[in-house]
Amino acid sequence: MKKSIKLIVAISATALVSSVAVTPAAHGATKQKVCVALDTAGINDKSFNQTSYEGAKMALSKGYAASIKYAPAKSNADYAPNIKGFIAEKCTVIVGIGYLLGDAIAAAAKANPTVKFGFVDGWGLGNNVKAITYKTDENSFIVGYMAAAMSKTGKVGTYGGLPIPTVTIFMEGFANGVAHYNLMKNKNVKVLGWNTETKTGTFLGGFDDTTKALQTSISLEQQGADFIFPVSGGMQATTAANSQKTKKSSVIWVDAKVMNTGAQYANVVPVSVVKGLAEGVLATVKEAYDGKFTSKEYVGTMANKGVSIAFTPAWNNKIPASLKAEIAKLSKDIAAGNIIALNTVE
């Protein structure tokens, strides 16, 4: 009997305010007042809020920003008021962190055409809005392949915060990477938590539910997953803490290097899927500073190093050299655009 597997690897895009002191001017261009509207989960989420705000800090240190500040959001209801507050404070660049801020940014940008907006994980919303996006299916594909290769149980798992495109793109890429490994090695490693055919999976319902994150992590382990890919902001720390306790699974860190945002979990995190959030925010502020701001989308890819993977130093001797070589080749092939649709397997 023929078993048909057709996988197309799609590398496509699928309120309290805290201030930071002003740095003295050191350049003749226009310094910006940069204000960052966070998604829920807080400034120290060890993920997208924290890493994106690092871009604003970098802009300040490089002299592109005269001042920076952020506004946290306890719920979706805070998005619009936070941005309106920034408008009232005459912020010149407002950066919204996360797909869910789209409606608030769209309304504010339309009403304030002279204010420049950066929209992390967003889309085009007018001439004064720059979408800051990432092809995270690229690096997720690579760690999917790696997890499949290192799995001892033949099962790997993933879960997301919410079923939104900027989350599911990671999960799809991860599952595609596992399928690619299966095809290349004639294996049958299974993915729990995401179905590439139905585009459905396991989600927490948000990015700050530690109870559900723990329950989901335990459930994946109980089903046999020995690698878990949590695409859920700071909830990855809950998964990693559980892995340390049970010693049943390893975790793939998301958005930043684990050594930068969760070094205490390094012993259970062999690799990080890095999303250049800070670099995207920095590039957006610099454009405004240089007087060259446009609505042209910023796209982070493997080719421009906007997305990447980073091995955890403690795991250097635990990852076989042969697997590292395969990963290096995959990385080059993806960066070059040489991703081929997988053919039918007999």
Structural summary, described in words:
This protein is of the alpha/beta class. The chain has two domains: 18-134 and 277-300, Rossmann fold (3-Layer(aba) Sandwich), CATH 3.40.50.2300; 136-275 and 306-335, 3-Layer(aba) Sandwich (Rossmann fold), CATH 3.40.50. The termini are close together. Helix 1 links the parallel strand 2 and strand 3 (65-71). The chain has helices at 48-62, 79-88, 102-111, 136-150, 165-185, 210-222, 235-246, 258-261, 277-290, 321-335; strands at 18-20, 32-37, 65-71, 93-97, 116-120, 129-134, 155-160, 190-192, 194-195, 200-201, 227-231, 250-255, 271-275, 298-300, 307-311. The protein is built from ten helices and 15 strands. The radius of gyration is 20 Å and the shape is globular. It has a seven-stranded mixed sheet, with helices on both faces. Strands 8-7-11-12-13-15 form a six-stranded mixed sheet, with helices on both faces. 51% of the residues are buried. Keywords: Cell membrane, Lipoprotein, Membrane, Signal. Its main location: membrane. It is found in: Cell membrane. InterPro entries: BMP_lipoprotein, PnrA-like. One of its GO terms (cellular component) is plasma membrane.
Q: Please identify which CATH superfamily of the largest domain we are dealing with.
A: Response regulator
Report how far the terminal alpha carbons are from each other: 8 Å
Largest beta sheet: strand ordering: 1-3-2-4-5-6-14
Major pleated sheet: 7 strands, mixed
The portion of residues assigned to helices is 25-40%
Q: What is the H/E order?
A: EEHEHEHEEHEHEEEHEHEHEHEEH
Oligomer: single chain
What is the residue-averaged pLDDT?
Answer: 90
Which regions contain 5 or more consecutive residues with pLDDT less than 50? 1-28, 340-346
Global shape? globular
Could you say which structural class the secondary elements and strand pairing correspond to? alpha/beta
Count the E strands.
15
